[in-house]
Amino acid sequence: MLGVPTLFVVRSSAREPTHETGCGVTYVIGIDPGPVVGIVGLWTDRPLTPDIIQCTAPTLESVLSGLYPGSNTVLAVEQFVVGPLAARGNNPQAGALARSVIRACEFWAERRGVMCHVRSAAEVKPWATDTRLTMAGLWAPTKGMRHARDAARHALFAAVKDCGLPDPLRKPRGGEV
After folding, report:
1. Nearest to 24, CA basis, from 176, 177, 162, 169
2. Closest of 36, 29, 105, 40 to residue 68, by C-alpha
3. CATH code at 87?
4. Above 90 in pLDDT, residue 66?
5. pLDDT digits (tens, 9 = 90+) for 75-123
6. What are phi and psi of 55, to 5 degrees?
7. In the structure, what pLDDT confidence band is assigned to residue 20 with cuts at 50, 70 and 90?
8. Mapping DSSP to helix (H, G, I), strand (E, B) and coil, where does residue 16 land?
9. The pLDDT of residue 171
10. Is the entire prediction scored with pTM above 0.85?
11. Which uninterrupted H or E stretch holds 37?
12. CB of 146 closer than 8 Å to CB of 111
């Protein structure tokens, strides 16, 4: 039935937040917008225990509110771009829905004072490669969940580029652990 909110899959770290406000630990939520919304939440102090969700667009705000720890949160949303690949997509309604999801994310973030980065796949995907996702522990948990995997790319990009999480492909310098 169309229009019925549906939660498809949830894979969660099932841990309570352990951060303190202002300590630099951040919860980064990556979002792949569309008819099926991919969502991946990463704590920068324990990136190997992601929250992984795929849901329908009508459930997005409830899912975000359920994940929201109350502070130190960043949203990383994939921008919808009409290009050659997008033009071959499902239908025009899918593009309109993706744009609506992005606006809903921006509004949700604004109401809570949460930083929201909207970046194109062209900016994120060349950096957030399959190898980098594997090294970050995000490849296997998102197997069979292509929308969540794209959300993981955006979450990891923001966690490293905006929040100071070490790059999973960077080798530690001498003496670093």
Report:
1. 162
2. 29
3. 3.30.420.10
4. yes
5. 999 998 766 555 555 577 888 899 999 999 999 999 999 999 999 999 9
6. -145, 170
7. very low
8. coil
9. 72
10. no
11. strand 36-43
12. no
Rounded Cα distance, 63 and 85, in Å: 29
Residues forming beta bridges with residue 118, ordered by sequence position: 77
The CA distances from residue 114 to 9, 82, 129, in Å, are 25, 27, 27
CA atoms of 139 and 33, how far apart (whole Å): 19
Structure tokens at 102: 């992005």
* Number of domains present in the structure of the chain: 1
Please determine, for residue 15, whether its predicted confidence score (pLDDT) is greater than 60.
no
Q: What is the SS3 assignment for 39?
A: strand
SS3 137: coil
29 lies in a domain?
yes
Backbone angles phi, psi at 31, to 5 degrees: -135, 130
State the Cα–Cα distance between residues 21 and 85, nearest whole angstrom.
Answer: 42
DSSP for residue 59? G
Bridge-based pairing of strands 36-43 and 27-32 is: antiparallel
Please give the residue range of the domain that contains residue 44.
25-161
Return phi, psi of residue 103, to 5°: -60, -40
- Both tokens of residue 167? 């790059």
